[in-house]
Design a protein that fits this description.
The protein has one domain (about 5-210): Gcn5-related N-acetyltransferase (GNAT) (Aminopeptidase). It contains eight helices and seven strands; from the N terminus they run E-H-H-H-E-E-H-H-E-H-E-H-E-H-E. It has helices spanning about 10-25, 30-35, 40-50, 90-100, 105-120, 145-160, 175-185, 195-200; strands spanning about 5, 65, 75-80, 130-135, 165-170, 185-195, 205-210. Strands 1-2-3-4-5-7-6 form a seven-stranded mixed β-sheet. Helix 1 (about 10-25) packs across helix 3 (about 40-50) and helix 3 crosses helix 4.
Length: about 210
């Protein structure tokens, strides 16, 4: 199936991919903590993040999209370097998007307090390592190898750009994701468990996988 770079017109699909990927197999994820509103408003916020001029790990330019036979987006993932000059870190990106979104400062402060427990289980994202993020497939398009094709494209892109290694992070206990990444050559590099994170999210913590690209 065709694999292509994402375009601005994909923004609504990418917002859905980011939201669902953040939840994985859990009832809620990162963006439920950031935007304590309805899913419709979360998707509006994430669509804004994919399009805003200040680039972040959610910007459309970092995504690859797999199309269905009908020409619609069926799966997506992002590839980027967290240490890339000019790329906003997560906290700054959320603040910039929140300002454009029109949320008030008290609501943003509450979001940051909720995120403290999340960050306690977050492995360090190594700058200078090609990072895979926001991996998601439309439910009706699963088990067709789309993520495998997207991973191949994303990893080859990182290799061509001169990166020596790639990394990806997921929840501890996400067995399907672990199997997928291990088949793609990734191995566990770091695992962090955090009791407040488990109480908040329902998973013991997060695990970071890494593999060589050369």
């Amino acid at each position: 199936m065709p694999i292509r770079s994402a375009e601005p017109d994909d923004s609504s699909f990418l917002a859905a991919a980011i939201l669902h990927a953040s939840r994985s197999h859990l009832p809620r994820g990162l963006w439920d903590l950031v935007v304590d509103r309805s899913d419709e408003e979360r998707l509006d916020f994430l669509e804004l993040m994919t399009l805003m001029e200040a680039r972040s790990f959610c910007h459309y330019s970092g995504f690859f999209v797999a199309e269905t036979p009908e020409g619609r987006p069926g799966a997506a993932l992002a590839g980027y370097d967290p240490g890339e000059p000019g790329l906003l870190g997560a906290g700054h990106a959320i603040a910039a998007a929140w300002d454009e979104f029109g949320g008030d400062s008290a609501e943003l402060d509450a979001a940051y307090r909720r995120l403290e427990a999340y960050q306690g289980a977050l492995p360090d994202q190594r700058p200078g390592v090609w990072t895979i993020e926001w991996v998601w497939t439309v439910p009706s398009m699963r088990r067709r190898g789309l993520i495998g094709l997207l991973l191949e494209r994303a990893l080859e892109t990182g290799r061509r750009r001169g990166y020596a290694a790639a990394q990806v992070t997921t929840y501890i206990g996400n067995t399907p994701a672990a199997g997928l990444y291990e088949r793609a050559g990734f191995r566990v590099a770091d695992e962090r468990r955090h009791a407040p994170f488990e109480r908040l999210m329902g998973a013991p913590g997060l695990v970071r996988y890494e593999r060589a690209l050369r």
